[in-house]
Request: fold
Amino acid sequence: MFSIFKSKPKKDSPSILIDIHSHLLPAIDDGAKTMEEAWQIIRTFEDLGYVKLNTTPHIMNDFYRNTPLGIQTKKDQLTNFLKEKYCSIQIEAAAEYYLDESLLQSVENNEALMTFGNQKYLLFETNFLTEPYPLKDFIFKITTKGYKPVLAHPERYEYLHKTFDKLEDLRNRGVLFQLNLLSLIGFYSIPIQRMAESMIDKGWVDFIGSDCHNTQYSVLIEKAQRTKYFKKALDLPLLNNSL
Ligand SMILES: [Fe+2]
Reply:
């Protein structure tokens, strides 16, 4: 049926309002170093219309031994700092878990893992070169425990580049995919950009995230949001704004 609402210009439709992946809590991983730097980055998000940022410090046994309590404490400090600056953007915190022995042990011990949203979304990453041998077992265990695994930046893993079969297999096992915004402008490499574009073509993107670490990333977000493929991704049933 004809509706006057269908003629509304597309550019007025909402973009992504909620970011789910960043490293903004100062000095606990390789992201922002100070509150001031975090604030500078956050203002860029605010200018672009974002209303909520779910920031996700690394938890990686060999490098960043962050804990839920430490992350929550830092998040509260940042929230108070932003209040003093009259910044109204909402900050939440979870983690980006690296698939290592320590994570497997936490799962085995039934420790509570940091998630985001009301669906127990669990953001995780792996090494970039070879498929970790416990990947499928890990996915089985956490989905059985009620978590919804979200693989950070699948387009960046070399072991997923050669064929789409592995990505399809992960999807069939219940893994959601989070694409990095800056992959769309070739920030990491051209093959990674092409992989990101193919994933959008296939509709295999559930979340888009900035994975913002510092101001060199944040100044490029607007450029990435102007790409043809970002606009194409907005036509997918992305979950960002449902959080
Ligand atoms: Fe990250």
